[in-house]
Amino acid sequence: MKNIRLLWHIFPAILLITLAAMGLVSWYGTSAIKNFYYQQMTGDIEVRAQLLQPEINRLLVQSLEKLQLFCRRVGRKATTRISVIASDGLVLADSNEDPAKMDNHGNRPEIQTGMSGQVGSSIRFSKTLGHNRLYVALPVSKNELGNKTVLRLSLPVTAIEDVLGKIHQKIIIGIIGVVLFATLIAYIVARSISFPLETLQKKAEKLASGTLMRPFNVSDYRVSSEMASLATSFNSMAAEVQARIQTISRKNNELEAVFSSMSDPVIAIDSEEQIIRINRAAATLFNLDLQKVTGLSFSGLVRNHEIQELAALVLEHNETVQEEVTIFEGIKEKQLRTRMTPLLDATGNSIGALIVMTDMTRIYRLENMRRDFAANVSHELKTPIT
Predict the structure, then answer these.
(1) DSSP single-letter state for residue 95
(2) Which is it for the CA torsion 232, 233, 239, 245, positive or negative?
(3) How far apart (Å, rounded) are the C-alpha atoms in residues 372 and 128?
(4) What does DSSP say about strands 91-94 and 120-126: parallel, antiparallel, or unpaired?
(5) Closest CA to 85 of 69, 66, 107
(6) CB 174 within 8 A of CB 163
(7) pLDDT tens-digit map of 126-172
(8) Residue 371 pLDDT greater than 50, yes or no
(9) Tens-place pLDDT, residues 167-183
């Protein structure tokens, strides 16, 4: 899986939590407002129905025709639809329609609740009027058989829907504003967490490359105590690593100075017979470029069969050997006392060989001259004087 920056781990999470919280709050708020308006409207319609209840009961006994005229007249003045439904679901009177042409209303939920002796209400789309309406029904009379007549009043809820629509618009605008503000805050918070870590990462990369760096100053950032502890630990580690690098560098320079100043030719090779280090004397002896031989094949540069065999022997058996080797510089012969020693790492494993060659040519020449001189003197002493 592809790794992504810490910023993009934190920022979307905060943003999603904010959006979810705002969505939940807006849904709860609009639901509460909607229920409040519907309850208020339901209560208002119920009061109207109770005011009409005595007259409805009186007209039910007198004449259904007068009941129809009363419902039509009052309904138009109050801009309220008024219906009277019998216990079998037949419409006895209606302020907007001819009762004889209307469907049976026995299956309407508010009618069924009203028949049970309670106040019923429901909101649904009216096919007759073409919009959503709130219906409230309550029992108004009861005959000797126990059958109830229900008075139902209804009002359009378009006004409430318009109000809720405006509230929704304001909520959406508010949500957009809050989300934009939350986005900015989330980015600042996420950045404040990720930026010190990114800075620490860059310093770690510099440290890994061996570059000296300033300590991570915790006071430059507003960070948590965990981040401050991490930065302090990193500074301690960086100081120790830099001190060790400086120590190793100093020792390496000292070793290089000693290695370069040796008058005897010295060559260090690895286990693959590639040159690790060579000093100036060895480069001069074998006519090599001191700056270009590192990593090249030892046997390909030092073309001497005896030296090559000795190097292979040391690498194979991991033992020190010493031999007298003869090489030629043009027509001049050189005698080299060659000592080869295994190079070992910290665990004692062989990693190559160190070759030290001492030029014995002049010493051997002087020794030969001494022997020749001694032989001549001895010969002269033994010869009789005539």
Answers:
(1) S
(2) negative
(3) 143
(4) unpaired
(5) 107
(6) no
(7) 776 677 888 999 988 755 444 578 999 988 888 777 877 888 788 88
(8) yes
(9) 878 888 888 888 888 88
